[in-house]
């Protein structure tokens, strides 16, 4: 079994296995079986034993606020094959090692969920120790929040050779897939969905700005934030709701020192023009009406908001809010960039600026990509 398959198996088993109240899998009752299991877990390179962090909090969000039943959630992490030939790793599809953090990404076979590794200690410790409680409380009270819905948080349950050698990530988040429905649209022969991962581009990015990017490969530069050279067409009511959510969501992030988050934007071309584009999109299966995308019922930014001109459906979510200024690695990076600025005057990076300043630029970017069509 390869690395990607072994990691996928460990994730799927952590989600679907019977757990105790604290999220740890039940141990074998037989002493010899327990010893062998511990021995195997310790010397595993890729298939690490994972457990759920704060499972009751995430279960409450899923059941009570997102109307996602336990069985339906677990089914997404079951292999689609029937019979004895079904393998746990087949429930997840690898979509590669992406980004500068070295994160691994998987999607469930039904495309409803994404699993992203969080390999940096500064990031997973921030989410666990600082943000998880306010995030859970906030998401319970803000059903229209643009913050991505995180359904589970997994971590290594014990010592492992694979973790010590850095061969496999020790932490993963399970989140909704804002691109849910794309594969079905492709099968119907519709135009491919467009997506952008947007951050303020006015910051200093060494990969882009030093020597005009000549010292960095195109592959590396392609992992930087995208640029959206167009407009989201919205009605006044849609725009006001969008901006209100952005203001409230980013206020929570700034209050907890988060920076460098991004707006993930999806634009879907409505396959057939109609007087009611939302109805047309729903008939085509573009707008999901079931958990985890709903509730609230459509239209929302996770199910799709129809442009007044009837041409597109837009989705959006705020992602990657795990970089906090008070953690050790961000502090170290801030010192380095401050020294660099003293020599070159290049300016701050998105990961070294203040939370309030990043929020201000982020909101300005979001407002700049919206065009309001008055009634």
Automatic annotation (TrEMBL):
Annotated region described as Disordered, given as residue ranges: 276-305
GO cellular component: plasma membrane
Keywords, sorted A to Z: ATP-binding, Kinase, Membrane, Nucleotide-binding, Transferase, Transmembrane, Transmembrane helix
Keyword Transferase: yes
Domain called PIPK: residue spans: 1-370
InterPro entries assigned to the protein according to its UniProt record, in alphabetical order: PInositol-4-P-4/5-kinase_C_sf, PInositol-4-P-4/5-kinase_core, PInositol-4-P-5-kinase_N, PInositol-4/5-P-5/4-kinase
Name of this protein: Phosphatidylinositol-4-phosphate 5-kinase-domain-containing protein
């Amino acid at each position: 079994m390869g690395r990607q398959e072994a990691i996928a198996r460990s994730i799927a088993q952590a989600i679907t296995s019977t757990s105790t109240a604290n999220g740890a899998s039940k141990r074998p009752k037989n002493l010899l079986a327990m010893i062998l299991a511990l021995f195997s877990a310790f010397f595993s390179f890729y298939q690490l034993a994972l457990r759920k962090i704060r499972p009751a909090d995430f279960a409450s969000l899923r059941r009570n606020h997102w109307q996602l039943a336990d069985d339906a959630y677990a089914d997404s992490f079951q292999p689609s094959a029937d019979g004895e030939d079904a393998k746990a790793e087949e429930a997840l599809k690898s979509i590669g090692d992406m980004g500068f953090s070295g994160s691994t990404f998987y999607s469930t076979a039904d495309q409803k969920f994404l699993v992203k590794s969080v390999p940096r200690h500064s990031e997973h410790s921030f989410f666990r120790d600082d943000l998880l409680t306010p995030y859970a409380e906030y998401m319970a009270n803000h059903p229209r929040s643009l913050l991505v819905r995180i359904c589970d948080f997994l971590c290594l349950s014990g010592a492992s050779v694979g973790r010590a050698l850095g061969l496999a990530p020790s932490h993963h988040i399970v989140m909704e897939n804002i691109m849910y429905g794309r594969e079905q649209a492709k099968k119907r022969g519709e135009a491919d969905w467009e997506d952008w991962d947007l951050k303020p581009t006015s910051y200093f990015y060494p990969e882009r700005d030093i020597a005009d990017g000549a010292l960095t490969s195109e592959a590396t530069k392609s992992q930087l934030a995208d640029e959206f050279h167009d407009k989201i067409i919205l009605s006044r009511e849609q725009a006001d709701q969008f901006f209100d959510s952005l203001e409230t969501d980013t206020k929570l992030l700034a209050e907890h020192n988060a920076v460098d988050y991004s707006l993930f934007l999806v634009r879907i071309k409505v396959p057939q023009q109609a007087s009611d584009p939302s109805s047309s999109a729903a008939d085509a299966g573009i707008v999901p009406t079931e958990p985890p995308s709903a509730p609230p019922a459509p239209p929302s930014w996770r199910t799709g908001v129809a442009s007044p001109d009837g041409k597109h459906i837009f989705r959006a979510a705020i992602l990657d809010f795990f970089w906090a200024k008070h953690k050790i690695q961000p502090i170290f990076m801030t010192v380095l960039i401050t020294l660099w600025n003293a020599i070159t005057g290049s300016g701050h990076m998105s990961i070294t600026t203040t939370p309030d300043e990043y929020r201000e630029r982020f909101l300005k970017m979001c407002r700049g990509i919206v065009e309001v069509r008055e009634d």
